[in-house]
Amino acid sequence: MSIKDVIKDSFLSGYSATDFGTKMIITTLAFSCLLGIYIFFCYRIMTRRTFYSKSFASSLVAVCMIVSAIILSMQANVIVSLGMVGALSIVRFRTAIKDPQDLVYMFWSIAAGIICGVGLTEVALLLSLGLTIVLFILEKIPVSRAPKILIINSVNSKEAEDEIEDLIKKHTGYYKVKSKVLTESAIDWAVEIRTSEDRTLTSELSSSKNTVSVSLLDHDGEVNF
After folding, report:
1. What does pTM read for this prediction?
2. Are 67 and 36 in contact (CB under 8 A)?
3. 3-state DSSP call for residue 143?
4. pLDDT (tens digit, 9 = 90+) per residue, 36-80?
5. What is the phi/psi pair of residue 19, to 5°?
6. Distance in angstroms (rounded) separating the CA atoms of residues 179 and 173
7. How many whole angstroms separate alpha carbon 221 and alpha carbon 147?
8. How does DSSP assign 90-122, residue by residue?
């Protein structure tokens, strides 16, 4: 026997295949499936967006089970684990995740699958319960109200400008003129405002003889504190 064969046999004997019973495999996959379904419902309840992606939510369950199966296979044989590392390293995912909260749920699903795969089901359960509590508390914390965008079309005159600015100052706690486009006969305003008197403000602006049209838009972007 050559030195190469001795080293090979010594390496493989140190990482001999671990036999997993069918019962253990089924139990691990079933528990990871239950955790994936739990993550699915948490995502469904806590995600409040207009366009809810059911395909992404369903993939959380599948990812949890697939990762558990991969971890079980990697524990069973070192050759298989090295092959999986090489195979997974060439995979490229092209789907962009636009919402950072989606990343949280994806990593949660992957982590639960890994932890279930190594047999630490109690850790996976405690992780899921802890994340649920943390996400629920953070969801209930109030944030600053987003500003609104006031769009005004008025006649082009000094009197109209002064009147509009006085009305905005009167009914807002904060305002900032984002743009003012002047033409020969009109002025187009875009004003960022914070106010609780939006109905009164728009009503007074609409009733002014210097105002042609008024629009008030909600701002769904990031909030500046």
Report:
1. 0.60
2. no
3. coil
4. 999 999 888 887 665 667 888 888 899 899 888 888 877 766 666
5. -85, 125
6. 19
7. 9
8. T--------SHHHHHHHHHHHHHHHHHHTT-HH
